[in-house]
Amino acid sequence: MKTIHTILTTLSFILSAILSVILLPSCEDFLDLSPSNSIPSDRAITDAGTLRAAVVGAYSQLQDYYSGSYVSLGVMPADFVSYNGTLSQYLQLDQNAIPNDNVITVGVYRTIYRAINSANSIIASVASIDDPLLTQAEKDNILGEAYFIRALAYFDLARGWGGVQIQLKPTETLDVLKGIQRSSQAGTYDQVAADLAEAERLLTDDASTRNRAQKATALALRARLHLYREQWDEAERYATQVINNPKYALVEPYEAFFTAPFLTEESVFELTFSLNDRNSYWNMWFPASLGGQYTLKPSDKAVERLSDPDTGGSRNAAIAGTGSNVYGRLYNTAGQAIDPAYVIRIAELYLIRAEARAKKASPDLAGATEDINKVRARAGVPPLTGVTGAPALIFAIEEENGVEFAFEAHRWFDLVRTRRAGEVLGITNTDFWLFPLPSSDILSDPDVTQNPGY
Amino acid sequence: MGKLVYQGIRLLPVIFFFLHAPLFPAYGQTVVEGSVRDDKSREPLAGATIVQKNTTNGVSTGPDGTFRFTVQGSLPLTLSVSLIGYHPGEIDIYDASEPLVVSLREATNFLDEVVITGYTVQQRKSISGSIVSLNVTDAITDSPDQDINKLLQGRASGVQVLSNDGVPGGGVTFLIRGNNSINGSIDPLYVIDGVFVGTGGGVSYPGGGQAASNPLADINPADIENISILKDANATAIYGSQGANGVVIITTKRGKVNTKAKIALNVSRGWSEAIRQFQAITGPETGQLVNEAVYNTAVDRGIDPSTVTLPFPDYASLPTYDRISDLFRTAASSTYELSASGGTAGSSYYIGLGYTSQESIVKPSGFERYSGRLNYDTNLSEKLKVGTSLSLVRTYRNVSNSDNDPTGVINSAIFVRSYLPVFKDDGSYARYGAFDNHLALIEHLDNNAVNWRTIGNLYAEYAFLPDLKFRSSWSVDNSELTEHNYSDTFVNAGVAAKGRATARSTRSLVYTAEQLLTWIRSFGSRHSLNALLGNTVNARLREQATVTGSGFATNDLRDISVAAITSGSATTSESRLLSFFGKAGYTYNGRYTLEGSIRADASSRFGKNKRWGYFPATGFTWNAGTEEFIKKLRIFDALKVRASFGYSGNQNGISDYAALGLWGANATYLEIAGTSPSQLANPDLTWETTRQFDAGVEFTVLQSRLNVNFDYYDKYTYDLLLNVPVPFRSGFEYYLQNYGAISNRGVELTLQSVNVQTKDFTWTTDFNISHNKNKIVKLASDITMGASGRNASILREGYPVNSFFLYKQLYVDPQTGNAVYDDVNDDKLITFADRQIVGNALPDFTGGLTNELTWKNVSLNLFFYFQQGNEILNMQDFFLVHGGTQNNIGFWPRQLERWQKAGDVTDIPRLTTFSGNPNENGGAANNYGGTVANLSSRYVDDGSFIRLKNISLSYRLPKTLVSRLRLGDVKLTASASNLLTFTRYGGLDPEVSAQSSNQNTAGYDWATVPQPRTYQFILNITL
Q: Based on the domain organization, do A301 and A369 belong to the same domain?
């Protein structure tokens, strides 16, 4: 018995000694490990499959900032949504006292550039892909999507932060960053326009797609871009192109567009979420008794406008609850968390055209009134009456925008764009009309400058 | 105790002699005479005290070592003999007719102590490194904490231990000689019986930033014999790449050959309570403050305040609902431990079984542990020895959300305004704002974590020659953690989902194979040499699978298999380490020792170009006490001077694939898998290196009654593994680089004193104090973080890590009631540029003071722990002193101290929610909101404290009684922990670190379970 023990132990001892010697020559192999949930950067976009995955990834980056944060930036600093929660980053947005490390502005800014880096990587790699499975048509389409994503990303930066640093090459090493200074807001919008032109050229339209970029999606964003740039004729022209596309229509009732299964004719571009890719923004709006956090709450003004049959009509479906417990329910799939992010709805194109018609060199007030009344009619609100003259009509369009897009990323950007944030919101210091650049960028980037006032 | 037994054996021949002497009865007074001698040199000893036992009758020896005195009573009787510097002895007298000769054995000094070092065991006198060796005694384990690293708090110099919260088994911050790293790990390497144990993979559930569990709580402290803490470069370099943060070598109990079985049973029961509880203000007070805020805001807006409708015109009639007392309970704890050890001629064993259960003082958390250990060694032949150390442990934790989670138990109770009822009219749980109902959580939340952990080692040791040995050791640390979280429809998280369940299984596996060749040889009487060569292969694997389900038919259903919507994910990650090391030491004449070691490590985590790291170290020891000229001074009983210098590395804490350029594949859209850039490649990524110089002196004076150990060290860590912030326009947040440097310098002093030592009474004092100065020497740019994106902590060159970065409130203007802040850049505006470092969470001094008094069978142990010079950011104040800006949050009593009228002098500004001119210094907007956004230094508090960490009183039953009961030893102990605390900190408890899952955000008090006060009764029985 004891002998067997001795033999066994001696054997295992010899074995271990041998093993450690064997390991020596092969130690480099032993130490070469790679992850199973990521791929090496240099093999990231090499064929049809990886290119398709990369563009899906770029949409996913858009989702990351549109799922909630960007909407919060569009509503909290304005007057239709007020702060009701515990998370002080939302209080800062509500009070228009946004420090340069505000979690939401920092997060959105960072994520937008992630989307841009994804788009840049696709744009830089498409040409070199040689895969028989990849047709020229699909190549063009993916490239067009990448241009559209980049355009939307820079547009969302420019209207929030002003002119930004324009990165057009993928970041493979940090060297590509050197020496790029902030552009002007107009310069950033120029880049958006250029990318949209490319997208328009490369993309096609089909009859059903609403959650990936199409030619019409690019046209719609272009209409909005021209509106922001006060290029009224172009805004009207592009808006008309989209409105005339039979794929899109104002849906009734109003709440149809934010009711599952979504993707209604209303939608020009929405980002779809699913059970494996959730959007929990509802949680910010719903009260605790319904399982939410209730950080964002419709303001008294919003409740008044939405509840009034003469202003809100069926748009009162966007709110629920009574008294001090009124809450927003535009994002409402509490159990499943699959609310889409509504990026462009056809109603917006009508109001873009209305505003462009009212503001263009030779105003078309009748046309503008007709557009606004279409949007009102859909909500069951009576047509405008007693509105005479361009200024009154323009104010009516502003009000209509507020009610129609009460909980979407519009009101703040509209009031800043029209330079009305001072009068309407009392934010007279125009420095606060732009968000601050993230403090970490100010610290780590020698090429950046902070917006004034921060 | 062991020494006295030994002394008894020494005296045996003497006793034997008398036993065989002719016996005759002795009556009345007897004169006893004799002499006292050194047992080795046979020199007579002057000044020794001889006392007749159980009397005061005694005498001292003269210069020639002789004594003579008259004893009382009849023979046989016992004399006690004692002399400073010698072990006391006893002698039984049966016959006084012959002169007695009593031999006393010299007490050896602490330099003769044997210390466990990296891979070897050495006598302290030849060690050039700085090593703390602690025998784990009852005095240490009598504390209610069941985590070995918590028990080291205040026991070892240079080691800073802080419990992050008061939850049993909860997270611990354990720093050896300061914080070395920013993005690398700062945990030391734990080696248990030669097994490198994993410290990652704790419970993942609790939200916020809190480390929820302590992986070292998986070890039963009762099984531990000794802990060696390796601090300096020479001691740690042999652990190379894993040694930069220090090494903790834990040696568990083993049996001894040829000893009969010793069976020990320990039972303890304890009760814990909160020292202080959270406090809310009453409903009427809340209403009054809210009204005041609305009124003041109207004034600030230029509105006539009389036109404003106050929210609570009749605030005095508001009710008050107490939530906080629902949180706390008197928490019970109990421990049962049973062990057996012993050995036959060829083998030895130790078997330990343990059970412990501890409730948290805040419901519903708790901790439970079952542990089993088998240590077995056997000599198969004269040359071959094999053995195993095997530990099997099951822990159970009931956990709940903490700190930054509005649906956590504590937050749900302390944040909700006190006038709001807990239940709705229909009796259901009421919820307000973002907060859950605390009772719903206590009664319905069901989050538990079960961990099965096996730490096992098999070794074989073969002696080619008596002085040349080969040891092969194979180890595994396997941790299988299963977590189940269930929120039913009574809990916020389950309301919308109609019940939500998560099951997560995490396996953390560490394999280590180690081959070691040691050679120890003396040449003649003057030269001795030791050398060691070794190799280890280390692999760490982590696998995690998570499944979630929502939508259950009823609340009774919990299996995810029956959920309406399910989803799952699984990940794996692995790293490997290959090491070769050698160590050699040469001692001349027992006086000078020169040591050197080198280790080469290659890690799979680093870029191919820079995979290997080489970590040499050297040390020198001068055992000056053996020099004649020192001996002649007649001051030192022992004196040793040592110095060491060397390098060690760190690769822990970074991701397993940190050097690779990667695209993550988790970017899903439209149910299609997508990819997006996730990490920039850094093929040059390599070891973070720590260079350390250490100089120390150890000496014994006052006839071996006072041991002193002093160390100075200078640690410099460079090539930091740093997530260097990069401009966001890159599409990335960080780029992991070897950039930056941190310096830690400090001094450590340990005193061990035998104040009084007589036959019946002993009083010993141990004291240690450590000072560490941490400084970031080089950093790419400021890095801010912490407090959920509020960035209240900063890393800045020239300052220590864990600095608080806030607006410094200078005063509250007595005229306006508005807060005035330090305008750092003097531009008359308050902007981000005016934020500054206003404090630091690292203490300047930490230490412990232990006094042990033993009188006959009774002993009293008092242990104080202290830390001084650290600040705490009180996040409860941050949230609950909000001036009215938070509609759904109540107030802390401190809010009542707000400015109310001109002339009020206070540091709490006037209530207002006005937000105009957020840049104006002294404007109303910045009181609580504005640019400052309440990130004010007024919530930073001094966190220094001294606390009576543990006091215990033990009584050992008399031997006569115990032997009549056929037992070996019986001891009864009553102990109390955290009985007294002296602090200026205004929060509940100064021993807190809520954001501890990130080492750079220490010192936050954020809805944390405070340290409890615990009373315990302990019974130890040995057969």
A: no
Residue whose entry in the numeric block shows the structure tokens 């016992």? B78
Shared-domain flag, residues B90 and B170:
no
Chain A residues whose CB is inside 8 A of the B794 CB are none
Residues B54 and B128 both lie in one domain: no
What pTM does this model have? 0.88
Q: Shortest CA distance to B245 belongs to which of B171, B172, B190?
A: B190
Structural domain total, chain A: 2
Among A341, A356, A374, residue at a domain's last position: A341
Contact state of A272 with B728 under an 8 Å Cβ cutoff: no
Q: Are residues A92 and A225 in the same domain?
A: yes
Decide if A211 and B670 are in contact by the 8 Å CB cutoff.
yes
Residue A307 forms part of a structural domain: yes
Residue A399 falls inside a structural domain: yes
**Measured distance CA(B631)–CA(B627) in Å, rounded:** 6
Residues of chain B contacting A30 with CB distance shorter than 8 Å:
537, 576, 578, 604
**Facing A275 at nearest CB: one of B565, B791, B919:** B565
Range of the domain at B56: 2-104
Q: Does residue B431 belong to any structural domain of this protein?
A: no
In a domain, A438, yes or no: no
For A441, nearest residue in chain B (alpha carbons):
B727
**Token pair in block for residue B898:** 């707000």
Distance from CA of B851 to the nearest CA of A (A): 48
Query: How many angstroms separate the CA of residue B434 from the nearest CA in chain A?
Result: 4
The domain boundary, picked from B270, B301, B332, lies at: B270
Q: How many whole angstroms from its chain centre is CA B413? A: 29
**Neighboring chain A residues of B881 at a CB cutoff of 8 Å:** none
C-alpha distance from A365 to closest chain B C-alpha (Å): 38
- Does residue A321 sit within a domain? yes
Same domain, B190 and B59: no
Whether residue A95 and residue B925 make contact (CB cut-off 8 A), yes or no, is: yes
Q: How many angstroms away from the CA of A412 is the closest CA of chain B?
A: 17
Mean pLDDT of chain B: 89
Question: What b/e readout covers B797-830, taking b as 16+ CB neighbours within 10 angstroms?
Answer: eebbbbbbbbbbbeebeeebbbbbbbbeeeeebb
B434:A87 CB<8 A: yes
Residues with Cβ within 8 Å of B736's Cβ and at least 6 positions away in sequence, in order, are B183, B654, B658, B659, B679, B682, B685, B721, B722, B723, B724
Residue A133 shares a structural domain with residue A241: yes
Cross-chain Cβ contact B885/A91 below 8 Å: yes
Q: What is the pLDDT of residue B893?
A: 94
Q: Can you give the C-alpha Rg of chain B in angstroms?
A: 32
CB pairs under 8 A between A and B: 320
- For each of chain A's 454 residues, which pLDDT tens digit applies? 444 454 444 444 455 555 555 455 456 688 889 898 899 999 999 999 999 999 999 999 999 999 999 999 999 999 999 998 778 889 999 999 998 889 999 999 999 999 999 999 999 999 999 999 999 999 999 999 999 999 999 999 999 999 999 999 999 999 999 999 999 999 999 999 999 999 999 999 999 999 999 999 999 999 999 999 999 999 999 999 999 999 999 999 999 999 989 999 999 999 999 988 999 999 999 988 888 889 999 999 999 999 999 999 999 999 999 888 899 999 999 888 999 999 999 999 999 999 999 999 999 999 999 999 999 999 999 999 888 899 999 999 999 999 999 999 999 999 999 999 999 999 999 999 999 999 999 989 999 999 998 8
Say whether pLDDT at B27 is over 50: no
Q: Mutation test of the interface with chain A: which of B676, B684, B932, choosing the one with the most A Cβ atoms within 10 A? A: B676
Contact B565 A23 (CB under 8 A): no
| Residue A314 and residue A409 in one domain | no
Q: Which residues of A touch B660 (CB under 8 A)?
A: 34-35, 38, 40
B218 to chain A, minimum CA–CA distance in Å? 29
- Both structure tokens of A436: 């601050």
CB atoms B783 and A440 under 8 Å: yes
Q: Are residues A245 and A292 in the same domain?
A: no
Percent of chain B with pLDDT over 70: 95
Sorting pLDDT into bands at 50, 70 and 90, what band is B25?
very low
Instruction: Please indicate, yes or no, whether residues A172 and A232 belong to a single structural domain of this protein.
Output: yes
The H or E element containing residue A71 is helix A69-75
Answer whether B663 sits within 8 Å of A36, measured CB to CB.
Answer: no
Specify the DSSP element, H or E, that contains B875.
Answer: helix B875-880
State whether B156 and B242 are in the same domain. Answer: yes
Q: Note whether A318 and A355 are same-domain residues.
A: no
CB B398 within 8 A of CB B854: no
Domain extent for A282: 256-341
